[in-house]
Structure formats: C-alpha cells, structure tokens
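WARN retry 2 of 3 for item q-0093 after timeout on previous attempt; input resubmitted unchanged.
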Amino acid sequence: MLFVYRNSLRLVSFADVYDLRSSNDELGGNFFTAYLSSWLSNAFIPLTFVYGLFASKRLYVWVATFACLVIYMATAGKSVILFPLFMYGLYQILKRVNLNGSFFAIGAALIGIMLFTLLIDLNVFIGAVFWMRTLGNGGLLANYYYQFFSENPTTYYSHINFVNAITHSYPYGDVPLGRVIGLEYWGETNSNASFWATDGIAAMGEIGILFSSVILFFIFIFFNRVSKGYNKVFLILVLVPFINSLLNMSLFTSMLTGGGFVIFLVLMFSSSVNNKYINENFNNSWR
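OK item q-0093 returned
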C-alpha cells in the first residue's frame, strides 16, 4: 500500500475522508491491491496487534498501528485508524474480568452511552456516526433491501462473483448489490448491508434469511474446531474486524475479502496452535 499510494498518502480530518476516498479510489481498484489491502486491515493487523498485546511485544503493536495509519492515509478508513485504541481498550476490559461478566459490562456501557447521547446536544457528526452508522444502519438497510427485492428479481446468489462467473445470471449488470440499492433510494450511495440482507433477502427473499443462517451455523462449527485450545479473549479481539464486515456485507465476501478465511488459516498453523502466549492451556486465568 505504501508503494501503490506513495504519491497520494494524506492525513486528513474525519470531515474530509470522503474527499480522500474519492481521489484515491482508482488507485486501489485492481484485484491484487483490493484483496491484499482488505486482508491487511481485517486479518493481518488484528492478528499482529492482538498477539503483540498478549506476548508483550511492542514491536508487533507499533507495526500494526503504523499499518492502520497507512491505510487511513490511503483509503480514509475511519474504523481502521480507531482500531488500535478500540482494541487496546477492549483488551484492558476483558483481561480483568470474568468473560461472562465482561459481556454484561460491555452491554451496560453501550446502553449508558446511548442514554447519554440522547440527553445531551451532540455534534451532528458524532451523532450520525454513533446512532446512524453504528446502531441504526443495519436495520434500516435490511428494510430497504426487503422493499426492493419484494418488487424486483432476487439474485439467487449470483451477486457472488464466482457464482456469477459460472451462471452469468446476475440481473443487475455490472452494478454491485450495494450500489443497486443506493441508486434506487439515495443516488450514488454504496449501501452495503449485512449477510442477512445480501445473502438472505437479496438472494432468495425471506427464506434466504434462514438459508444464510444455516450456512453461518456450519461456519461456526468449523471455527469451533479450528479455534479449540485458543485463549477466548484473544479470539474475540482478533475477530472484531471480521464480525464488523459480516454485519456490513455478504457472508461469502466477509470470508474471502473480509479476511475470515485468512484468520481461520492462520489459526490452523501448528506454530499458532502451540504458541504459549495465546494457547489457553498456558494462560488459564484468561479464559
């Protein structure tokens, strides 16, 4: 990414991120760069950063943090630049309390933030990011996907590139699914949604929600086998970006482009399984 974006790296404020994205959009559009940059942000950075925390190796933490800065300066990914701060804070919370209790604490904290934002006059940008992008966007887009595909052809999974390469049956030409919804309701917006909306409603209508959930169920079974023996807090932290992608795009896209497959593969390495810093048998106090 340093090479591809070498003449276009800029550190901008959150107010100017869309200008940076627009100006640099074509640079990362090729297949090779798109996949590697996505795997960097969703798989390699979390693995490196979190391992650095568990192993107390600052070099790993700083390298991952620097990579986050590079990605932000290249693609203006707001979530990526905040990733080190968020991961470190979550790490400090989860390592100090029982795992079951920590989920209650995180839930209570989120409820507290929600109430606080309702009681004070927030900056419009902060309110939009927290309420619209973080909490409300998923449900809102699922509703629009339902409205659209109740009246228009479903994709029968041809929105997935390798399926369409075989069937050539995608009904919306060269326009990606998120753009189809964005163009219909808001103009040029790219409205990506969760796997329930994309692999469920868009693919097969209402029955697709059940079908996509069954697929996710089998992925969970596979992941449980792959992750057996790992420290549970380590797994939670590493999977945060993947879970975020799962709630904002197709399940199949999340596994491939979103880094899920890469994380599963790394967890299968014997050097990872037997690593004393992240193996639960070496660190029983952090279950």
